[in-house]
Amino acid sequence: xxxxxxxxxxxxxxxxxxxxxxxxxxxxxxxxxxxxxxxxxxxxxxxxxxxxxxxxxxxxxxxxxxxxxxxxxxxxxxxxxxxxxxxxxxxxxxxxxxxxxxxxxxxxxxxxxxxxxxxxxxxxxxxxxxxx
Length: 132
Prior knowledge:
Oligomer: single chain
């Protein structure tokens, strides 16, 4: 039973030598000639990729570009942000209470308040008049 991917044939294909020739289209003169293999092309492209990623990470890490990334900042900036957030929340709550108070006051002044009569009787003691 033949295997679909034989390790020997894959290795041979990676090591096969190819020639890349760049020619002038008008004169058919060879301008540049490269002797390549698939393995050398993979290694070269992988190296270029790793170098580009490394340079990008270094550029962001060691320059001021890191401050443009979301979520990045110093510890003091984070503490200050949390402090301001709590202050804003308390101010919003106070503003809601004030708005509710003013709405209720407007209702009372315009007479739109539904009144409920208290049906509980109060026992008020009578003040005795002194007879002197």
